[in-house]
Design a protein that fits this description.
Elements (H helix, E strand, L loop, with lengths): L22 H17 L14 H13 L1
Length: 67
Amino acid sequence: MPVHRYRSVDEMPRPWRAADDPGNLRAVALMLAFHRTLTASRERRPGVTRYRSIEEAEAVRHDRVSG
């Protein structure tokens, strides 16, 4: 994705929607629902998982990816 630099805010393109547009909340709700459908089958524990070695971490990562 290219990065565009602007010398002032006036050079920037206008946002797609106004900040107070009621459709914004609807769009966020749809995105969250989509996210939930993608991640519904995953079991995710909160926090950080620590491993005793790089090999153990890579084995767990490989198991997650393969099934």
